[in-house]
Write a structure and sequence with these properties.
With about 900 residues, this protein is of the alpha+beta class. The chain has three domains: about 10-270, 7-stranded beta/alpha barrel (Alpha-Beta Barrel), CATH 3.20.110.10; about 280-715 and about 780-800, Golgi alpha-mannosidase II, domain 4 (Beta-galactosidase, Chain A, domain 5), CATH 2.70.98; about 800-905. The chain is about 30% helix and about 30% strand. It has 20 helices and 44 strands. The protein has a ten-stranded antiparallel beta sheet, covered by helices on one side. Strands 17, 18, 19, 20, 21, 26, 30, 33 and 34 form a nine-stranded antiparallel beta sheet that branches. It is globular, with a radius of gyration of 28 Å. It starts with 9 loop residues before the first strand and ends with a helix. About 50% of the residues are buried.
């Protein structure tokens, strides 16, 4: 820390902004109504001060929402953006980067840059100030779009204002670390008599941590729709001390300071630490059903539908780029951190569920249409349509039986023999399956023993957390399965069905596990899980039986992690640090981490990998143990006094849908072999599990029987058409360069050709041009097709309802709070000076809690009135009463937050 005195000169750089939580305690149906007033207010501020600049939370979705609601605002937005008063982008929205797929993250930036350019906005800095953790490849993604600096807050494990953030392939950006938060000057003019004191207090709190006399302060807050101009206020109405020099700034402008500094610290890879501000590990497992819906829609769009449509474009079908973009934007809207994280009100998540189902059904129709065009030139028969660039060989269960499939990359391949599947219900107590890769013994408790490995053991325990943070509790006894039978059998595979049912107080959990054994290296689990009750968690434990490093697949990368993060601060902080770190923090230890596709234990010679579709939370431990969280039932958005978190994470809303009382189908697989984690053999197994070939029966009128379009042994993130070109986006997950099978034209993210590429460097994301789609000249016939193993929807309808007794408790609580507010207001009439500030603070805190409680009660009353029917009227038509309560809650939240700072003076 730098030695300073109150007389030390200081340059205070003020950045005006809003953090727009589009859907959190209300849906966008309500918050969108506040955007026109925000733009009107910005117009007014610019008229008073033409140099005023305002950051719109780094996202263009706010403007899209505005223009959908009020198209006549377009000219206002264009004027503000072209003049530089309104700063938007570089993102379309603010997604959760840990749980959104890599291709969606890239397109989020592509749409954001394209949207902002359309309005004439300048290129902004990256702005990730409320993201719940950061992926390792974020610097590379920003570099691909020419962005040199990023503002971050949560996840950074050091108390330095500036550092170089480096991706594993070497890309670097200058990172500005907002450990003091993004709202430390918020509402400074609303209590004008102490505005200068607030300014100086906040600046001096931060000054010891900064290497130069330059300190940024941020005037903005969540859903701020009535911004102020602090610089104009200080210029006209206050006398700022001569040792403080105020500078109007923007994120892009202020970033020039760290960009010019030598010897900054370097942080490499992902940023997941909750040491200085919480990253909320519980969000990885809150409402797991939402994570599955998001995964299945993303996967169907980017891994199946777009590739098949690209292939169909080569035989003359128009590529529906506009429809794909519309679906992608809708998925991105659901990926916003409060949404995908499962930490919004039930109404937000009900709307998400409705949208996911519409997207999924629309994608299935699109897939069928693309296949019908694609297969017209093929002879009648059964085929495997592969959108996986790795070779695939195995047997797939279809409605016609067990079908042998062999493909060699992306294309269409004839299938092999079809073997009938014998259904049965033969009871067993144990079972043995042996193939060329393993010998597996199903134990009497339903777990699978493979050598030293014990796999798929179900575990049930109490849960004491909330939607943001998990708190594992007492272990509950599951006992032996109620039933274990051989359900399917053929000469090449077997399915063992294991059924469990557990009751504990008001908790009911039933699980039907189908274990699939075949000739491949994979053992597969399909878990049909149903539950009722609250404060419970269901996990599945896989003990690999060998030690090694822990690796997890994340967007565009495989990252290595420790079992536990104990580098955290104590609950109580010294005053000088407590004054800076005002947000929530993780304490004690963190042992739940994010993953996509797989988690693995690897020691360099042997790798044991656990693969999953749509699950996002794991824990690791001794004996190569990986625990996957299948289900976590809570019913409050946030709770106080948790063991592993300091501070409330958000509004105390009653959210009964977070109990997840519905049926959910989970799909997992395990494989072990003598290879390294990034070896093509393991990656090929994972790709085959995640994206197996689609088996179809076609009545085409042609003579073709096979078509190989593209084959490379690298993970494929997308295969799509852009400006008449077919582009493939791949990444190299290994630390070694990967030679390509031939030379390709590499393009930038926009599809503009750059250079010839023969190999993909370690950890590099590349876009390759594969072909050019011909222009469509004539109508063509289509083939009748039937999908024999179609994508399926894996989540059942919600069976939970709000508890009337809890709604009544909320009503009573609101009444009690109203009495307390009246008492405070009585005292306020006589209060002066600092006493008045503290009473106003208490008044706003109580009022916020009172209105919050009323809104929670009314939302749940409306929910009960619908009877669980997710109609468009319920989801998308604003309710006047909710609108009024929500507006008042937002006003009280803002007032309370301002006075959080006022009472520190």
């Amino acid at each position: 820390m730098n030695p300073i005195t109150p007389e030390s000169p200081l340059n205070v750089h003020i950045i005006n902004h809003t953090h727009w939580d589009r859907e959190w305690f209300l849906t966008h149906v309500y918050t969108n109504a506040w955007i026109p007033g925000l733009i009107d207010r910005l117009e007014q501020l610019v008229a008073e001060n033409p140099d005023f600049q305002y950051l719109l939370d780094g996202q263009t979705l706010i403007i899209e929402d505005l223009l959908n609601l009020a198209p006549h605002y377009q000219s206002k937005v264009e004027m503000l953006a072209r003049q530089g008063n309104l700063i938007m982008g570089p993102y379309y929205c603010q997604p959760d980067w840990r749980m959104t797929c890599g291709e969606a993250l890239l397109r989020n930036m592509l749409y954001g840059r394209r949207d902002s350019a359309r309005f004439g906005a300048a290129k902004p800095a990256g702005w990730l100030v409320d993201t719940f953790g950061h992926i390792s490849q974020a610097p590379q993604l920003h570099s691909l779009f020419g962005i040199e600096s990023i503002y971050v807050w949560r996840g950074v494990p050091l108390l330095e204002p500036y550092f170089h953030w480096q991706s594993p392939e070497g890309s670097r950006v200058a990172a500005i670390n907002l450990f003091g938060g993004y709202r430390n000057l918020y509402g400074v003019t609303l209590v004008p008599e102490i505005a200068v004191q607030r300014l100086e207090t906040e600046a001096r709190l931060l000054q010891p941590y900064y290497p130069t006399a330059d300190v940024p302060l941020f005037d903005g807050y969540d859903l701020e729709n009535d911004p102020e101009d602090p610089l104009l206020f200080f210029r006209q109405h206050a006398e700022v001390p001569p040792n403080l020099t105020l500078h109007p700034s923007t994120p892009e402008k202020f970033a020039n300071i760290p960009l010019s500094l030598p010897n900054l610290p370097i942080l490499k890879g992902e940023l997941n630490s909750g040491k200085y501000s919480a990253t909320f590990p519980g969000t990885l497992s809150a409402r797991t059903y939402l994570k599955l819906m998001a995964h299945d829609c993303e996967h169907l769009l980017f891994q199946v539908c777009e590739p098949v449509a690209a292939l169909a474009s080569l035989v003359g079908r128009p590529y529906p780029a506009g429809q794909f973009e519309q679906w992608t934007r809708a998925l991105l809207q659901n990926s916003i951190h409060d949404c995908l994280c499962g930490v919004s009100i039930d109404l937000v998540h009900e709307k998400m569920e409705f949208t996911y189902r519409q997207i999924f059904d629309g994608l299935l129709t699109e897939l069928s249409n693309s296949l019908a065009h694609l297969m017209e030139d093929f002879a009648p028969g059964a085929y495997a349509v592969s959108t996986n660039p790795y070779p695939y060989e195995g047997r797939l269960t279809t409605k016609e039986g067990l079908i042998a499939v062999k493909t060699n990359g992306v294309g269409v391949w004839p299938v092999g023999e079809t073997i009938p599947i014998e259904a049965g219900d033969e009871p067993i107590s144990t079972f043995v399956w042996q193939n060329d890769h393993y010998t597996a013994v199903v134990q009497e408790d339903g777990s699978v023993q493979v050598g030293q490995a014990r796999l798929g053991n179900l575990a049930l325990s109490k849960e004491g957390g909330d939607a943001y943070s998990e708190e594992p509790g007492e272990q509950l006894e599951i006992g032996l399965p109620n039933e274990m039978i051989i359900e399917q059998r053929s000469m090449h595979h077997c399915v063992v069905k294991v059924s469990y049912a557990v009751s504990w107080e008001d908790i009911r959990v039933s699980a039907t596990v189908r274990l699939t054994f075949d000739t491949s290296p994979l053992i597969r689990w399909t878990v049909y899980l149903e539950s009722s009750g609250r404060d419970v968690r269901v996990e599945m434990i896989f003990e690999s039986g060998h030690s090694g490093e822990i690796y997890a697949a994340m967007p565009f990368d495989i990252v290595r992690r420790s079992e536990t993060d104990r580098d955290l601060l104590p609950p109580q902080l010294p005053p000088e640090l407590a004054g800076v770190l005002l947000g929530q923090r993780e304490i004690g230890q963190v042992d739940s981490f994010p993953f996509r596709d797989f988690v693995a234990i690897s020691n360099g010679e042997k790798t044991s990998g656990l693969m999953a579709k749509g699950l996002r939370s794991y824990r690791a431990g001794e004996n190569g143990r990986v625990t996957i969280l299948l289900h976590r039932a809570v019913e409050w958005l946030t709770r106080s006094d948790l063991r592993h978190r300091v501070g409330d994470a958000g509004p105390i809303f009653y959210v009964p849908d977070a109990r997840c009382e519905r049926s959910v189908r989970h799909e997992l697989a395990f494989a072990s072999g003598n290879y390294y984690i990034s070896d093509a053999r393991f990656q090929q197994l994972n790709a085959g599990f995640q994206t197996p070939p689609l088996v179809i029966r076609s009545q085409g009128n042609g003579k073709k029987t096979s078509w190989q379009f593209f084959q490379e042994s690298l993970p494929l993130n997308s295969l799509h058409c852009s400006e008449g070109k077919i582009l493939a986006r791949l990444h190299n997950p290994s630390w070694l360069a990967h030679p390509l099978s031939r030379s390709y034209v590499a393009t930038d993210v926009w599809g503009v050709g750059q250079n010839s590429l023969n190999a993909v460097l370690p950890k590099k994301i590349v876009t390759l041009q594969l072909d050019s789609a011909p222009s469509v000249t004539t109508e063509r016939q289509t083939s009748a097709i039937e999908m024999l193993n179609p994508p399926i929807w894996r989540v059942g309808n919600n069976r939970g309802t709000p508890d009337p007794a809890i709604i009544e408790q909320l009503r009573q609580k609101a009444t009690n709070l109203e009495t307390e507010v009246a008492q405070i207001e009585g005292r306020l009439q006589q209060a002066t000076g600092r006493q008045r500030y503290h009473l106003e603070h208490q008044n706003y805190k109580l009022r916020r809690e009172m209105v919050e409680t009323l809104l929670s009660a009314r939302l749940n009353e409306l929910k009960r009135e619908t009877g669980g029917n997710l109609t468009p009227e319920y989801l998308f038509q604003p309710n006047d009463e909710i609108m009024a309560i929500g507006l008042e809650l937002n006003r009280m939240r803002m007032k309370r937050r301002i006075f959080d700072y006022v009472v520190r003076i």
